[in-house]
Structure formats: structure tokens, C-alpha cells
Amino acid sequence: MKDPILKEAELRMKKSVEAIDEELKKLRTGRPSPALLEEIKIDYYGVPTPINQVATINVTEERSLIIKPWEKNLLSAIEKAIQASDLGLNPTNDGNVVRLVFPSPTTEQRQKWVKKTKEIVEHGKIAVRNIRRDVIKELKEMTKNGEISEDDEKRLEKEVQNLTDKYIEELDKLFERKEKEIMEF
């Protein structure tokens, strides 16, 4: 049976990795992705609403997104929201859809994105290590209070370290995958 402390640590580490993965999906890579628009909201009858809840977003060709709102009166609001965002893209509105064309990124832009990816992944690693630190601190406290033996403490510390190594490795794989995606031409 797995110790409850280890279960909780693993769950927290897994959630940290998942959060980093989600954050990386939103990072621009030069390749169009509907996830880039998830954070952009428009005013929909007085309520800030994500674009993906009022329109269909499709990837077309190699470097463009087509945003087709369910109500045509939202076209200009979507266009303005994208222009106001930090995506650095210029939407075109043809009366039916909003088209986002992604220009080929320069090598400098790609390097900047890789650097940003590395920062995001590093935050994930720090989170995983902080979880390890908290668990080890808790184990030492339990040993001090006589709840577990020193042998159990050492065994559990080793297992926590193994979990940490596993999730750090997962984060490294996420980075490598994203870096490869960014550097593709």
C-alpha cells in the first residue's frame, strides 16, 4: 500500500506538471493553435466571454486560424479583442469570418519563445521541488513526534525523491517537445 503522504505528493506533482503543460499549450510557437485564443475575451451581452465560447475556431492551411462566430454581430468585437491582445497578430474580417494569419517567425523570435518555454518549465521544476521539500519536512516532523520510525522516514524520503525525479524528467520532456515544435520550419 502506498503511503498517503506519497499519494498526496504525487498528486500535487502531477497537477504541477499538468498546469505547466497547459501553460505551454498557450505559448505561441509560430504554428496556429486554437489554444492561443483561450485567454482572449470579448464583451458578449455585457459578459466577458472567451472567444472559443462564441465561435468555432479552425486551423487551416499551415499558418492560419479561421474564427467563425455563431452570431455575425460579434465579428468586430472578436477582431478588436485580438488586436488588443499581446499576440501581435493582425486579424482580417471578411464579413463572415475573422482570419488570423501567422507569419513565419524569425530565428530571433523562435529563440525568444524557447527562452520563455524554458522559464515556464523551470517554474514547474521549482514547484515540484517545493512539494518534495514540504513532504520531507512533514516526514521529519512525523519522525520527531514518533509517528514514524527513522527507517520509514528514510524510505519515504527516497520514494519522494524518486517521484521528484520522475516529474522533473516529465517536465524536461515537455520542454524538449515544445522546443522542437518552436524550432520547426
Lay out the secondary structure.
Blueprint: H1 4-25, E1 41-44, E2 47-50, E3 55-60, E4 64-69, H2 75-84, E5 92-93, E6 98-101, H3 107-144, H4 150-183
Antiparallel strand pairs: 1-2, 3-4, 4-6, 5-6
Subcellular location: Cytoplasm
Protein name: Ribosome-recycling factor
Main location: cytoplasm
Report on this model:
It comes from Thermosipho africanus (strain TCF52B). It is found in: Cytoplasm. One of its GO terms (cellular component) is cytoplasm. This is Ribosome-recycling factor. The protein has helices at 4-25, 75-84, 107-144, 150-183; strands at 41-44, 47-50, 55-60, 64-69, 92-93, 98-101. With 185 residues, the protein is of the alpha+beta class. It has two domains: 4-26 and 106-183, Topoisomerase I, Chain A, domain 4 (Orthogonal Bundle), CATH 1.10.132; 34-101, 2-Layer Sandwich (Gyrase A, domain 2), CATH 3.30.1360.40. The strands form two sheets. A four-stranded antiparallel beta sheet has the order 3-4-6-5, covered by helices on one side. A two-stranded antiparallel sheet has the order 1-2. Strand 1 and strand 2 form a beta hairpin. The longest helix is centred in the C-terminal third of the chain and has 38 residues, at 107-144. It is elongated. The protein starts with a helix and ends with a helix.
